[in-house]
Amino acid sequence: MRRFVLAGAGHRAYEMFALNLYEKYRDTIVLSGIFDLSRTRAEYFIKNADPRSVFYDDFDKMIKAEKPEGVIVAVPDALHDKYVVKALEYGCDVVCEKPMTTSAEKCARILQAEKKSGKKVTVTFNLRFVPVLMKLKELVSGGAVGAPLTVHYEYLLDNPHGADYFRRWHRKAENSGGMLVHKSTHHFDLVNWLLDDAPRSVAARARQSLYGQKYDSGKRCLTCPEKKECRFYFDITTQDRIRNLYLDAEKDNGYVRDGCVFAKEADIYDNMAVCAEYHKGAVLTYSLTMFNPYEAHRFSLTGTDGRIEMTERYNVDSEITVFHNDGRTTVYKIPKDTGTHGGGDRRLIEMVFGGHKADPLKSMASSADGIRSVMTGVMANKSIAENRIVFASEYPELL
Q: By CB neighbour count within 10 A (0-12 exposed, 13-18 middle, 19+ buried), where does 300 fall?
């Protein structure tokens, strides 16, 4: 029986790891320990996911008692490095939720600890396992449009999804690195993976266009006198899992899950644009907006021999069109898949924990992949703050 432990008992850890491991791999894997500052949340995991788990409010005590082969890290982003490094120092492999961390200094800490320990960090980039994006990788790597020259990538977060980041701990950049790290790490990794390359320079602009800027941080949806008129009202009592993991757990650590999306303390951006030049010569233009009527990827890549266009929306059929320079057009229909994140979560879990060895698309992401995606966001944030182009050469120990 393989033994893993989990650091961080939030909704994502429950949905992504705890449920999948028990439902699919209970005969070969045990999630033997759960570390969290909230006993209420951990006990929800134990009751509803893996009853063999034991709650710990001390990470070191858990590692010493459980002696796991691997640690799953799913605490808030800015704390990833703390527990990744500790796990490596204890001689454990690490499976880390994205983003791997939130700053250049923290990337360096993880890289050094990984090298010293001889253990491995795997970063869970589930977009690499979504069928339409796997097909996109196959086509680009197979030379369907020749050498890549330019990429246009627009990600639209819909209103419910985009607003939700402004209710949670993510709304403070010190916790999440901002959306160009927390959310865009998915998208920067996808482009890096498709191009088999990394940016040599990044320039960016961003602002708060809708959320934040208005109320003191104490305001919350549950007790708000304006909730009947607010289109962003979120009723935390109506979703059983969210209520159990967060509202019921407030007594443990005071964390409020339904903060006001217009809180003044929210210092992250909701409207972002990035331009990056890659080492092999391709140029990326990217945008992330968080207040759209629907959610989708819009992606195009033009190469020396043609152009690929793709629009992907979760839970609906997707389509990739290849426009060849000789006038031909090839269309690929990709049926929708079941499960969270378009089936990407399920396939990722199978690859990480199911013992699958074949990885023809190089979908498994290492710490190096994690660093490249985080640093794209870090460089973008620095470009915004300093109003200049930021170069990878400024971080020679990482890029």
A: middle
